[in-house]
């Protein structure tokens, strides 16, 4: 990404601050005498001169091995875009740049723009050499140089001059560099010169990084805002869906809470069936605990069916801890018991169980006709009365159960009213934006520090 490439350049420029090698980069238009100037500086012809064709090569030669200075010969500007970019890359590593101009074709619009760009890159560590001054009539030389100084006004700095411009002839056979060489050698002995240019390159890299980061942060902010809006919409939609289901569930539960007739009828019918079974068996008790649990299970089944699509799990109607103490109900009458006992005795003597059943029937007939008592009807009436008393208590328990369910659904509604969730992608975007903002802050702080140091170096 753009911000990473820019940050890598910042890191490279930070490492460049400690570089021992010092670079004098000579650049200019094609065939302005760059190679010839370097040859005259080092006192020997190591670089080819009078080239007949364009060469994209970059050449380096030692200039002052004791101080670590080297001279860098660059391809001519404006001949090839890739070569021009290569020249700018070399200037980006320069401690001092020399722009060579040709006196007979001095400072085109493209050259002036390039001079402005390099001057900004190197914080003014830029000097100008007008080569081939011998090709201009002596009477016109001052006019040419005055015009050049005016065109380059404001360039350079306190270390090299504003601007620093030399008129030379670097021809291999009759060249004359005048006082340019001793002045340059004296300048190269300053430690402030490379420090200023390197700080300037670092400052430039920081500025580019800041611009790239600003663009990336703006884009990230848009993505975060869009993701937040989309997620907020999804969350609100989910909240509304859950709360609608809960509201529907509460409405549904009002039905079974207010109408228990079906379960009441089933409860009493089961009690009557148990009474008949007891009569047939000749004795026993109605299993009210079983019937109560069955009642609770039926209510739980209703609740489970109605809450199948709810976003909460509702507890069952648990009556296992309910203590049941119904009135004791006699299931036989003394007459019926006497007849049943007599029938059992005869049946045992004759070995016929049907005689025992006949005895029980006889007992009921005696109770009904002799004692005017209907054992079965009396038993059913008492079972019915006990069952209804139990149902009254069950209705209270059921009402409390449905109140608890309604309270639980209200709690669930309150929960979903403020419900949210973590969104990993959104968290990742927010973290990335936070990291880039931290890098941006670091970049701004380092830029301020570099500005302060450069001012100190320039005016020390």
Question: Explain this structure to me?
Answer:
This protein is of the alpha/beta class and 460 residues long. Among the domains are: 18-199, P-loop containing nucleotide triphosphate hydrolases (Rossmann fold), CATH 3.40.50.300; 259-333 and 373-417, no CATH class. The chain has 13 helices and 6 strands. The protein has helices at residues 2-16, 34-42, 81-91, 109-121, 138-151, 180-187, 192-258, 261-281, 288-306, 334-350, 353-369, 375-417, 424-459; strands spanning 22-28, 59-64, 69-73, 96-102, 126-131, 165-167. A 6-stranded mixed β-sheet has the order 2-3-1-4-5-6, with helices on both faces. Helix 1 runs antiparallel to helix 7 (192-258) and helix 7 crosses helix 9 (288-306). It is rod-shaped. The relative contact order is 0.09. Residues 327-333 have low confidence and may be disordered.
SSE layout:
Elements: H1 2-16, E1 22-28, H2 34-42, E2 59-64, E3 69-73, H3 81-91, E4 96-102, H4 109-121, E5 126-131, H5 138-151, E6 165-167, H6 180-187, H7 192-258, H8 261-281, H9 288-306, H10 334-350, H11 353-369, H12 375-417, H13 424-459
Parallel strand pairs: 1-3, 1-4, 4-5, 5-6
Antiparallel strand pairs: 2-3
Helix pairs in contact: 1-7, 7-9, 7-12, 7-13, 8-9, 8-12, 9-12, 10-11
